[in-house]
Amino acid sequence: MIPFILLFKGVDELFEEKIAEISPEYEPWFSPIFEPIGELETFFFSLQAAIGAFLIGYYLGKWSLKRSK
Question: Is 49 inside any structural domain?
Answer without folding.
Answer: yes
